[in-house]
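Re: [help] complex structure
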Amino acid sequence: MGDASILQAVLNGLTSSGQYILVALGLTLVLSIMNIVQLAHGEVYMIGSYVVYYFSTSLGLNFYLSFIIAVVAAGVLGIILERYFLRPFRARPDKAMVLTAGFILVFQNLVLAIATGTPKTYKTPYEGAVLTIGGSALSVERVVIIIVAFVLIAALFLFIRFSRNGQAMEAISQEREGAALQGISVDRLSAIAMFVGCALAGIAGGLVGSLFSLLPTMGGTVLIKGITIIILGGLGSIPGTVIGGLVIGFLDGLIPLFTTQYVASLIGFIIVILILLFRPRGLMGHESP
Amino acid sequence: MLLELRDVSVYYGTAMAVTDISLKQEEGSIVSVIGANGAGKSTILKSINGLVSIHSGTIEFDGKRIDGSGTDAIVKAGIACVPESRKLFPYMTVQSNLRLGAYLRKDKQGIQEDLERVFTLFPRLKERLKQKAGSLSGGEQQMLAIGRALMSKPRLLMMDEPSLGLAPIVIDTLADTILEINRGGVSVLLVEQNAGLVSRVAQDCYVIEVGRIVLEGDIKDMMSNDSVRRAFLG
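Output below.
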């Protein structure tokens, strides 16, 4: 295997990782603050892609503007879900989670009704552009995804570590009642978590949508990857999510070099199961609460 | 009156947790609620905190109704709590725990002053500043829980069984700490099973049994009355 194909594989690994981590970080945020796995998270990602498609292709708007609209729309959708659907079930996270499962069907069918089941595609202004590094050609589209993803991951780290709201989120994830007793409003921070989490999913969907064709069911795979990542990383841990995302992303990028796509995803999950056998709380999970 | 509960009842589901609780506390005093496990002591504090909603009755703080308000508004009004089992943020440092105690405050200088005050009260916390809260000893965790509560600059400090799990000698120090906090102008509402600790710090005392107040008065009179002591104070 030549250097060029290794570089290509690393690039693919980073692209997948970046995309998965953006989605999984939203799941992690919502899980730590609201105690639920937001099962319709993949659909928020899907809606992000479709909004970009709709504004840039159907309405002919500038791609960047369409992208921003998609991100804001995804974030606002998150706030609406939290405020009107999840908040009433604050004391019963199990019910809230079943509700998010219902929203998978609602969103998929809504998009199906509006956009039909025909696969859609859209183009970025930099489609087909190539960056040549050390003799190998790298797709600018992938490089953009990698840069945006890792800049956002760094920004989220800084937000959690240094901002007042970020510290409040950390506090809630470690000790809910203790946090409430300091005057931290779980309602307010749940809304912020849903906004940030869904906006990140929207960003991932908007960026990645140009690489594939869009289908109303495209959120499913992403959700499975996201759930695998947060379990692998140690539930609720942000550094764990990033590491878990890199593991899954690179398995996705590297294994297909040696075998077929189908065997690759099988091997990926077997490796995850092996890791969890030895570290049942995940890579970065706390030993005991 | 700083705090006044009138006929407060709380249900958990269909089960009555506390019934017709009436309680008064003057500014600057130390009042205590004493009773066995499961008598409803914590429920009273949680109803004041807004963590459980009350079924009937009223709760007034500084003359204003606070029942029905959110916990954040109640903390902002000046009520802080050292909860049962402390509820610290275990994977955060001592420093971050203390900073979060001042979550609702904006006055940087005042926060710094109160931080110094906490360090004067508990010099040990200053030595442990960068350590994770979960790695502290039981006594140190109790100091941190009290310090964190004081960081909100409360007028009323509520403490839920602070003596639980502490060695007798640490309980003695705890009594001194409570008295010192009170001398600083903070009223203290102390919920306890340990009558020894209560008699060292409090005067007004309410005895609670299966959700009802069965006796109220001066703790020293109660302690000197043999039949009362045997019946209620262990």
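Chain B is about 40% helix and 25% strand.
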